[in-house]
Amino acid sequence: MGANQQIDRSKLMSVLWKIQAKKSCIEHDDITKIANEFGLSRMEVEGVATFYHFYHRTHAGKYTIYLNDSIISRHAGYESVKKAFEKEIGVTMGNVSKDNMFGLFQTACIGLSDFEPACLINFKPFINLTPKKVKKIISDIKNGKKPKEICDYPLSKIQYTPEKEKTVFLKPYDTFSSLKYIEDHSPEELIELVKKSNLAGRGGAFFPTGLKWQFCRQNKSDIKYIVCNADEGEPGTFKDRALLQEHPETLIEGMILAAYAVGASIGAIYLRAEYRYLVSDLKKVLQTYRDNNSLGKDINGIMGFDFDIYIHLGAGAYVCGEETALLHSMEGKRGEPGTKEFFPVEKGFNNRPTIVNNVETLCAVPRILEMGVDSWLSLGTEKSPGTKLLSVSGDCGKEGVYEIEWGMNFREFLELIEAKDPYMIQFSGPSGDCLSEADFDRNICKEDLSCGGSVMVFNKSRDLLYILKNFSDFFVEESCGICVPCRTGNFLLNKKIEKLILGHADKKDAEDIKSWSQIIKTTSRCGLGQMSSNSLNDAMVKFPEVFEKSLLENTDFNASFNLEDAVKEYDQIINEISSDYE
Amino acid sequence: MNKLVNIKIDGKSVQAEEGKNLVDVAKENGVYIPTLCYFREINPTLGTCRICTVKLNGKHTTSCTAKVSEGMDIEVNTPELLDNRKAIIEMLYAEGNHFCPSCEKSGNCDMQNLGYDMGLTVTRYPHVFTDKMVDFTPKRMIMESNRCILCKRCVEEVKTKDGKDVFSFVKRGVNTRVQIDYAEEEKLSESEALRAMTLCPVGAILVKGMIHEQPFGDRKYDLLGNDILPIEKDKKVLKGEQEKFIVATTSLAGCFGCHMSLLDIDTDLLDILDIVEFNKSPLTDIKKFSKRCHVGLIEGGCANAENVHVLREFRKKCDILIGFGECAIMGGIPAMRNFVPLKECLEESYLNGITSEVGADIIPGHEDIPKLLNNVYPCNEIVKIDYYIPGCPPNAQHIWKVVKNILLDEEFSIAHNEFKYD
User: Fold this and answer.
1) Which of A471, A544, B119, B246 has a 20 to 30 Å separation from B386 between CA atoms?
2) Between residues 240 and 269 of chain B, which touch chain A (CB distance below 8 Å)?
3) Closest CB to B383 among A522, A558, A568
4) CATH code assigned at A359
5) Residue A377 CB contacts under 8 Å (≥ 6 apart), including other chains
6) Which of A516, A519, A525 is best to mutate for the B interface (most B CBs within 10 A)?
7) CB B164 to CB A39 under 8 A?
């Protein structure tokens, strides 16, 4: 950079957010201005602005409505709610009313699967929507009420925790208590303890946390970062929301402990934009820590331990849950995953050693200190000690957040959530496993059925192909576009599912799905592509009857080509012309 | 020099400098790993095209992003990995619009060359026929996004003197494309602009007025691969004296060039007639099938309802269908109308075109005129096609060789330089 110091690029997204919030759109001139301020070319800023779907280049309405179109919402009455919105504001989905008052858009899962159908209006949550409720909301807004005055405050439905001494996460917490540990223990001792606890990445990757911290500590740098991945984007997941709402103090303390362990001075919570309504509360909690001298300079009287946390707001991109994409996003770039040439603990945020941990992982650390590592290890299974938070939604009696001990029998779990007649369970979200009755006797743990947190239950009345199409639509929408197998591969698989639904697919198409998925899986650049075809392929193995029913015998003629449809446009043109003559 | 480490490439133990790029190490040791986005000068490497995917210690990874270290076990040429590479090239062909015969970069195109290398005759995926922007606005360049494979070379490598990007990715997912920043582009010197064009592995970045017409044979990849000889296979001899093979041919939405090429076999045609009898074909002027055929040769894609009827008829009457020429394989030149609304096409050809008479005001519509389809379709999207012969047109000897191979049940033994897409 040299003498001509530019504005720190990592502020780019928050600048874009400010403009989007103020003007409901980021205009040409705004981009030019930002580009000059940041010393970037116009198009580079344009590239960032068009990557995230909550930034709009055209007016998105003074009141921007994002209706969740996840499968859970679809099953809970999305269609009628969508129609109600369209009727009340007079525009169709994806459009903005003429007076620029309302914009209606659909978006991927907003982390409110236990309250579907749900939407965000100017990022304030509205839950359990019905056509009647929609009518009321819109008329209230038209009468001058602000979304923040009339929105809901969805508190997490905590449905189950194990008996008292076995509960880890969802129980009262004595604020600041874990920080006493660092006053009389060295960072090395803390890392040893985390290693001993066998704590592993709760986002689903299960990378040993202690090892990650150790690597980061070993890398020398002027500055190190702790990043909390609160981008909970996997459809059907909302357990991190519960932690952020119920026990944000454990997260903050987890980050402080991590900072102490690796010697970091700056922390960031990468919060998905869908959770923007949590920001003000989080900021308040952060302030209490600053007031208590537990954030800031010489934390808790430990000379030289300086650490503070800020919140980085995402802007709508599922792929940013991937850690390298997340770091790019924090740097103010397009959220494209990196090449994994370096781990974040070597070269992460701004090329400095960085820890990226999931909310639940960080929250676990103060809890382990609280209960003692031995009682923690006595819970769960050998490879996955402790408990696990699961977000349950779909066709069951009790949707909500469950804290279960790792190792629980799956059938037992289904009884717990009151799933009557479960047919298909999507475990760990669309990129996870598709489970059928054959799996019900398995156990929920790393050794057997491992899980990131999303559990979606579907009963026999649901159309499996429709569900799979919804998942596939999601991946097509959320692929970052940097590598062809994911970008186009998922698009082509989506077309195949469409063909299946229309009854045009034959056995050859089923083989194509399998072999194409394998190509996408083995050649994609990041987890999104590698996992995107999991559910479809699982379903083909576990529910062969559904596919057999929809597959035609192989023929030499492509059933999906319909000559009448193909000449329709021509007929129309010719008809128009001949009617002109008459 | 870094210390030497021991690694294994396809079972062969070799020594290499620690930390060196795997693509380069493999090359030095006689193992070729195809690449497309990889460009030595760009560091860190891009890892966008995924073609160099290998198995490293049992795990799939791109070799351009891998650095060698002690004990690495690398698999490069397993059937699975070879097919993956071919699949990715096919996917790139299917997602973009790669009409080689009309592309300025044909013959100098890295992707086209990889296609030849891999013996690609058709893609296994349906063509997407995208309609992205072709940007003529920049002062010096043209950006043809429909040819762009998003390798990111230009984004990372072309900068102005003050370090700003000239090319940027915009949008995301299937809509991702490279956009030129007009203001920054103006700052590039002539040679920097030309470098951008050369850097582009396909024909997406063009510099106005600088597209040299190079004769066939002089282009970068024209002579490459001539030394690759077909693998000799044991030839099966036909048992006893059989009846002649029956062959039918047709030209759908094509230019008849492939049929012309067919006639270029010259005197060999006499040999062919010894074993082959032509049925329905423009060559014999037999209009209707009079018997079942062994092979049907299809030129051209489907642009109208009559094409579809004929193609379906061929499928019913022929045991084996061979698509020959680009139009039959992927729609070819006629498919370029897929990006123009049908009405505009009709108006252009009957009313506004430079060859229409002054005052022409009729778009003919009559039941005897075959109805146009909304798009031009590759043949394999209507019926199953068994074999493909690429080229525009395919070389005469090549067509005959393929047909003979199929009829005599021989394995393909086509030399690298015998087939061309343009």
Assistant:
1) A544
2) none
3) A558
4) 3.40.50.11540
5) A196, A197, A198, A385
6) A519
7) yes
CB-based contact A573 B375, cutoff 8 Å: no
Structure-block tokens of residue A126: 């509205």
Distance CA B110, CA B203 (A): 9
Largest CA distance in chain B: 80
Nearest residue of A to residue B320, measured between CA atoms: A556
The rounded distance, in Å, linking the Cα atoms of B388 and B404 is: 14
Torsion sign across C-alpha atoms A121, A126, A130, A135: negative
In angstroms, the separation between the Cα of residue B304 and the nearest Cα of chain A is 8
Residue contact B183–A41, C-beta within 8 A: yes
How many other CB atoms are found less than 10 A from the CB of residue B154? 23
Provide CB contacts within 8 A for A447, sequence distance 6+: A381, A382, A383, A384
Encoded amino acid at A496, one letter: K
Length of chain B: 422
Among candidate residues A86, A67, A65, the one with its CA nearest the CA of residue A76: A67
* Nearest CB neighbour to A574, from listed B50, B83, B365: B365
Residues of B in contact with A561 (CB under 8 A): 308, 377, 381-382
* Domain harbouring A415, CATH code: 3.10.20.600
The Cα–Cα gap between B135 and B144 comes to: 6
Q: Tell me the count of A-B CB pairs closer than 8 A.
A: 185
Q: What is the pLDDT of residue A581?
A: 55
The residue assigned the tokens 């820590």 is A289
The domain boundary, picked from A333, A351, A378, lies at A378
CB atoms within 10 A of CB A548: 11
* Residue A131 Cα, gap to closest chain B Cα (Å): 33
Q: Do the Cβ atoms of A41 and B382 come within 8 Å?
A: no
CB contact under 8 A, A558 and B124: no
Q: Identify whether residues A428 and A366 lie together within a single domain.
A: no
Closest chain B residue to the Cα of A581, Cα to Cα: B362
- Candidates B155, B166, B170: best to mutate against A (most CBs of A within 10 A) is B170
Which residue of B37, B91, B308, B349 to mutate against A (max A Cβ within 10 Å)?
B91
The pTM assigned to this predicted structure is 0.93
Q: How many domains does chain A have?
A: 5
Ordered structural domains, chain B, with CATH: 4-77 (3.10.20.740), 88-207 (no CATH), 245-418 (3.40.50.700)
Q: How distant is the Cα of B271 from the closest Cα of chain A, in angstroms?
A: 32
Which DSSP letter does residue A400 get? E
Same domain, A253 and A392: no
- CA-nearest of B262, B211, B236 to B102 is B211
Residue B183 forms contact with A (CB below 8 Å): yes
Query: Considering only CB atoms, which chain B residues are within 8 Å of A480?
Result: 172-173, 176
* Domain coverage including residue A256: 160-378
